[in-house]
Every structure is written in C-alpha cells, then in structure tokens.
Design goal:
- There is one protein chain.
- This protein has 274 residues and is an all-alpha fold.
- α4 packs across α8 and α8 runs antiparallel to α12.
C-alpha cells in the first residue's frame, strides 16, 4: 500500500486550498499505484493495438472498399484510426471503476474518514489519475497508428484540439466509471460494468459509416455520443467536414462529466455517511 502524506489537522470545512492540496496528495497516491502495478495499463493499451492491427491488416482491404474509403489499405487506415484512438480512451476509463471499487471494498476509505482530509479529494485523485493515464495511452496508440501507416494532415493547433477533446472525454468518462465503481460490490463487477462503453464507438462511425447499417442501428449510430466525437476527431486530424459535430461532441463530454460527477459524489457521500 502506498504511503500517503496527509495534510495537518484542519477545520471541519476545509478551504479550497486544503481541498486542492488533498486532491494532489490523492493524485500522487494513485499515480504510485499505477507505477507499481502497470499490468492494468498494459492490458488496456494492448486491446486497442490488437484492434488496430486487426482492422488494418485483416479487414482493412474489404472494409475500405465497402465503405468507399478507397482501394488502398492506407485509405482505410486513415479512416479507422480515429475510432481506435477513441476506443483507447474509453478503455482507459475502466481503471477508474476498478481503483475506486478497490478503495471502497478494502477499507482504505474508512481510514481516510478518520483523517482531516477533504472527502472530495478521494474521488478527484482517482479521476485525474485516470486522465493522466489516458494521456500516456494516447501517446502509445498514436505512435502505433503511425507505425501501421496513419498519415494525418493536422496542424499543431488541430492536434492540440484533438488531444484536448480526447482528454475532456476521458475526464467525463472517468467520473461516470467512478460512479460505477462506487456502485459495484466487487472489483470483478466494477471491471465489467464499464465494458459496454469500450465497444460503443464501434456502434457508431468508428469502423464503418452509419449509412451502411440497417435502419434501426443507423439511427442509434447517428445519435449516440461517440459518433459526433469520432467525426470531430476525424475532421481535426484528416480535414473532413466537422459541421455541428464539434459543438455536439463538446456538449456530450460536458454532459457525461456533469452527470458522472453528480452521481459519483451522491453515491460516495451516501456510503461514507453510513
């Protein structure tokens, strides 16, 4: 178990500076956990890389021709990589549910309750730790994408906007999965609860266009949150039209973050008040 340096005794209502200090302490604690137990991060990185290799080298030729992305494998590689990157970010959010559930079931939160620390800092440390982990995952998956032939034409500003959107999505998903981890009774249940989020991008425009889907599935693909996010990411990196998808993507990320934050705080406060 990592050693956590707790702030000196404070009043019952900690100031913002104390809350920030406690959040940084919890963030360092979670980063140390990730450093000492890297197997989870490696597993989460490997799944998108396997998917990348599968869709580029196994299905790339057929799918590229089928959706009109061109006859060359490189054309389809450019099409599918933004969806794979999006999948990598959603996969990274799973660790938040697991780490939060681990803290809740192993009793460390009960120990924190006896200390003079901000309650909100416990969840905040998990969420920001997950966002930092997502940034590291993005570096690896983008590097792998270049290795298999991904050739974007984005400017530095567009790259910054794309990475910012992905980290904002990671922030929102981390709050959502934190709530899932709080509601799970076991670590195994916490690891399974966010799994549908991982594959939801594939029911959008990640690997094929929604126009190629049956009517009911096409309607779902067009209106689910990951399609506008994916189209915005594709537009920033490859120069395709974005239209209103950028604003819709930001609205979805904001909604996920707000809903996840309110839900996780409510469940956490209810549990620690017992």
């Amino acid at each position: 178990m990592s050693t956590v340096t707790i702030s000196p005794a404070k009043s019952a209502k900690p100031t913002r500076s104390y809350a920030l200090r406690d959040s940084m302490t919890m963030l360092r604690r979670n980063l140390k956990h990730m450093q000492r137990y890297p197997s989870m991060t490696i597993t989460i990185v490997m799944m998108p890389i396997v998917m990348l290799l599968l869709f580029v080298y196994v299905f790339g030729g057929a799918l590229g021709t089928g959706i009109g992305a061109g006859t060359s494998r490189g054309d389809y590689t450019n099409y599918v990589v933004p969806g794979i990157i999006l999948m990598a970010v959603t996969s990274g959010a799973i660790t938040t549910a697991i780490s939060v559930c681990t803290d809740m079931t192993e009793g460390i939160v009960n120990r924190f309750r006896t200390m003079s620390i901000s309650r909100g800092s416990i969840l905040t440390g998990h969420v920001f730790g997950s966002v930092i982990q997502a940034a590291a995952i993005l570096v690896l998956i983008i590097g792998a994408s270049f290795a298999v032939g991904f050739r974007p034409d984005a400017s530095p500003v567009e790259w910054i906007a794309a990475i910012g959107l992905l980290l904002f999505l990671s922030f929102g998903l981390s709050w959502m999965t934190a709530a899932m981890g709080l509601g799970a009774k076991t670590v195994e249940a916490a690891s399974n609860a966010p799994m549908p989020l991982t594959f939801l991008p594939f029911l959008g425009s990640a690997v094929v266009t929604p126009d190629s889907m049956p009517t009911a599935l096409r309607w779902f693909a067009e209106y689910q949150p990951f399609t506008p996010i994916n189209e915005t990411l594709r537009g920033l990196l490859l120069g395709t039209p974005i239209g209103n998808d950028g604003w819709i993507a930001l609205a979805w990320c904001t909604g996920l973050a707000l809903l996840g934050y309110l839900r996780s705080r409510a469940v956490f406060n209810r549990k620690v008040a017992r």
